[in-house]
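Revision sheet: structure tokens.
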Amino acid sequence: MDVKNNLHNNKSNPRKLNLLYLCLLLFVTLLTTLYLASSKAIFAFSDWTFHAARVEEIYLNLKSGSFFTFIAARTFHNTGAASFLFYPYIFFYPWAFLRFILSPVNAFYAWYALVTFATATISYFSMKAYSKKSLASFIFSLVYTFAPYRLYLGGAVFGEYLAVTFLPLLFLGIYEVLWGDKKKWYLLAIGGALVAYAHILSVFLSLEFAIILFIIKLITSRGISKDRIKSLLLSAVVCVFLVLPVIVPFFTDFIGQGLSSAKPGISYTMGPRYLLLNSFSAQKGWKLSFMLILTFLTAWAFIKSRRNWIIYGLGLFACFLTTRYFPWKLTAGTPFEMVQLTARYLSYASLFLTILFALGSSSVLEEHVTGRKKLALSCSLAVFMALFSLSSLSVYRDTLKHVQDMPKTSADSTQPAPFKRLRDYNYYNQFNYKILFGAFDYMPKSSLTSVQKQNSLLMHQAYLNGKTLTLSPLIKANQISYQVKSEKAADVDLPVIAYKHTTVSVNGQKHAFRRGNRGTVVVGLKRGQNTVTVGYKASPVFYLSIVISILSCLALLIYLVQFKAKYAQ
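Predicted:
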């Protein structure tokens, strides 16, 4: 029997076929990553400094023996900002662990490769479960994983970049619950949980499309069965249990505490002309690939099934949401303002349009290509997508050649981080700059009422007896200490943010404190030399939520093993 002829026969060799496609996906992943990594540099733009500081904090805490990170003691100018409490970071741990064995630049690119291959793998098997077609799944994985907008996200916008990894699984779960095998409700629970651990805003965006699909189900099926409702509710409940460690801090430390969050408001929309024409340029960015634009323009002529019309409609709607023609002004004062950048909907447009592109192109190819030619075709597609991705990434590489290295600055600098080049030898320079986007997220609103207050935090300024002191912090994991000498009993206002579960000790003894007009820790001191230590002690409910989440994972795993065994029979 000819192995190559048989390789693309799903029924006779599904495992070998999956292995072939995964190897090709790995090839494209490694080629594109090595192309970037060979520059031995990183372009620090957009949200890079925000996420790099978070990873650095995790890494340094791990190095000192502390697994959990709650507040920024070592980064974010030692302000104790609690972005770790309210912005998920679990998927940054692999990056942080890689720092123990690789240089800073290589650690990032190794993590980049891991996320890329995870995206390709999840995309492939999600599409395989949906379409039951291997070639269509391979094409979907290639085009979705190496889409220009996702390549752009991979440079700095890491929350959204991670969420894109799990969107195919999430929407496969939605499909199974509403139209497919309702017994596979766990796919929705797992997909929703993974997106939540990556990027909270992406949960909100995904929920928008989930509601639309639910309404479409009600209309097209004239209702929904009780069994499907039960599956939907079960997946929602399990999902909540899985993400309790993400949810709990908002109830214990955010609500009612006067804290700020990411600035709401729609700050940028695209014109349809920009979206259409820009997608034919050879670079990554806020755009779709030319393949998806062609799908956008022509798919209506080839669609025959209702299911594909729904997918096409969702893709068109996602594109419409990115443009200024959608009445975004009407969303002022509503939760929809959290979107900020309408380009975020390009991830969803890519998802839906790529499904159609993969189904259509694979059907045409399979009609004309058989036997060994399919193997050659698969390899050719992988090479084409690799070259297409390298072309998109070439502008980034060119930027790295011409941009200047990030210079040093003082530890109390208020200068925003510039868009400069980072190498191993100047990687740490970035942490002395003010983080460009997100430096003051999740801080008390009172600390943001003036530039002077903000700068006083960045400059490590404390206030004592009517005088301004510039202090040098002593740092441990989730803990910041200051040496303060007072000529008389007085209150000192330290440049560290006070949260509900902030702890304070003076000379090793637990001490009461209050929140000052900067939203910072204010503590009464006795005359003389004092060591004031500010830390954070998570609520017992938080640790309980972790236990519940782990137990839920184990219970779900046992269920899946039993389900698979029963399904196999």
